[in-house]
Request: fold
Amino acid sequence: MKISRRVLCLSLILSVLIMPFFPTSVKAETLRDYENLLKKYEREQANIKDQIGENNQLTKEAEQEIENIKKELTNMSQEIEQMHIDIVDYNNEIREKTLQTKELFEYLQMTRSENVMLEYAFGAETITDLIYRIAVVKQITEDNEKKINELKDMIEYNKKREVELEDKEKQMEKRQKDLTEKITKLTKKNASLNDNSVSTEQQITTYRDQIKAYKEAGCTSNMEIGVDCFNNNSVAGWYRPTQSGYVTSEFGYRWGSLHRAVDVSNSNPYKTKIYPVATGIITSKFTDYYGALTIIIEHKTANGKYYSSLYTHLSSYSSNAVVGRKVTPNDFLGYMGATGYVTGPHLHMEIAPCRAMNHADKNCGTWNKYTAYVKKIYDSGKFKGPRELIYFPKPYVRYNTR
Reply:
């Protein structure tokens, strides 16, 4: 029993000692992996569009209900206003009827006195005529009293109705507020979904272009990209992205966020050609959310380390700007410009030690992952930007050779 334990311990020790000398197995990405990922993003995009469509319908229904509430509130306000007018009219009519009844009642009391001749003097030609007139006065008095009671009932009804309408107004105003908040939430949700849609659409475009390039390079579904096909030549050296120019902004934090690039401009920016900073393969070409023309190139060093360089705000692309094409520092990509969100024409040039927007890279496989990873390694002091690889003079000091 002791021997077996010793053997077991020795085996474990040997395993621990031997393991570091053997490379960890990493699954290489095949063309099929990219094709499956493209399908996944296409499904996500379809779901996003469905959610946006559903939210738009809910927003439309809420807006219609708000319009109906506004109309009903207007009608209710008009009804309340009319009831106030009616109450005033009813009270005036009650006063008139009360006064008339009082006068008639006084007249009736006078006719019941012994001074019958007084009534006769007011117009009755005979006693019969006088009695008839008294009966009429009595009937009018009773009718007035009945009318007054009806008017009082109507006033009471109006007051109760007004209370009901005011309560209903409060309920409808609360409903209107709830619907407005609902629309605000749906709008914010759609804004977030639209942002995700733009990001997802960008990934779809990138993977479609990459798959097309891989197939044109002879890759089949089971081939490992970069191993069995689509091999990338090693970087021979790093160069500045323009023949001449000057740095206008550095890599690092500014205005509360990380500026991931070195910005370069020139005295004649729109005629300044942009070149790859090293040999590599174009893996992405797209227009970003703000309309900036953008290119990403993937580079591989002699020791197998990957880098990505990004060029944006271009005014136009050259014929070399094709996803899947191998480019060298002598192949120009396009012209400097001011597309997208900028204050003036310049080149925004990023370099990062990963494979940007490439599914094979767990750190930088999507745009969001890429930006988060660059921030992470910068904050940790592991990467300080393009100047680690490329020499640039100090800001606004002009260079005339690459």
User: Anything to note?
Assistant: Confidence is low (pLDDT under 50) at residues 1-27, 114-121.
